[in-house]
Amino acid sequence: MGVPERMRAVRILEHGGPEVMDVAEVPVPSPRAGEVLVHISVVALNNTDLWTREGAYGRPGDPQARSGWRGPVDFPRIQGADVVGRVVAVGADVEENIVGRRVVVDPAIYDDDGPDANPVGLMGSERDGGYAEYVTAPAVRVHDMTESPLTDDQLAALPTAYGTALGMIERGRLRKGETALVSGASGGVGLAAVQIARARGARVLAISSGSKIDAVRDAGAHEVVDRARDLAGQICVAAPEGIDVVLDVVAGDLVSDGLPLLREGGRWVIAGALGGFRVTFDVRRLYLHNAQVIGSAMHTPTHFRLLMDLARRAEIQPVIAATFPLDQAIRAQEELARRRHVGKIVMHP
Q1: Whether the predicted pLDDT of 1 surpasses 80
Q2: Which domains does the chain carry?
Q3: What is the pLDDT of residue 62?
Q4: Beta strands in the chain (DSSP E)
């Protein structure tokens, strides 16, 4: 079957609420030299979709400025970072044997070509993404997952959430036998961190609440503490010798209250600010105990390859909370914003 000239896509026209989203017929992009064209089967949603639409990331020196993931957004923008599909065409300088293969796209835009490059942009924010029927991607960022036993929905859950979680775990140097504390454990990144930390052989203590606690425990947490109660007290009881690594997407008061709970040489890794982006803490608890606070934005190319290897062996099992058709992207984002779900929300173009 040939590639059509036009496709359906969901775009944001400016920063704002769900009303800035529209469904449009747009040209199918053509792969440039070094790129492939992917016919999308599944795209997963992330908090980055909400915050990019809202312009909630701020800028250096102006935390209230409306901004995409790393800067101004070129509107209209097709959102969506997490793409699974089949390669249907290639640009110049790309081997054609990738055509027809089921692939996962690494959505990061890196600052150089090295294996430990830093992400400085994101598909769906700094370039068009997967809320569409087709998307182009650099061939070097496309990973052949044809042989993975995971479903397309499960594979689509991986790039941003599991990539971010694995980046946190790698930067935090979590080792087998250590104790990890995971905040926001019922969300996409949190649940991914629970599963990957458990697979690594760590003892996993997770923070959740209400009806989500059982689901987080089922995902692999050894113990779950209720964030609605005395959090520090519960953590002290569950981990009396302290926490080795905190995998945190909440920040805010959790950092202030929780830093003393680290063991000597403990690492606090932050990849989100659901609880607030301004943090105060007693700096003596940092330097007197050789603790580290580490920022972690997504993953490196090396981390992403490790993640794809885990997926090929099915050592992680992403949880799918809900599915929507592409033309219900507004409903899907509204469901994501309610935060009542456990796992990932995906759309089928």
Answers
A1: no
A2: 6-161+299-348 (3.90.180.10), 173-295 (3.40.50.720)
A3: 87
A4: 6-12, 21-27, 35-44, 77-78, 82-90, 102-105, 108-110, 119-122, 134-138, 142-144, 179-182, 203-208, 223-226, 243-248, 262-270, 292-295, 320-325, 344-348
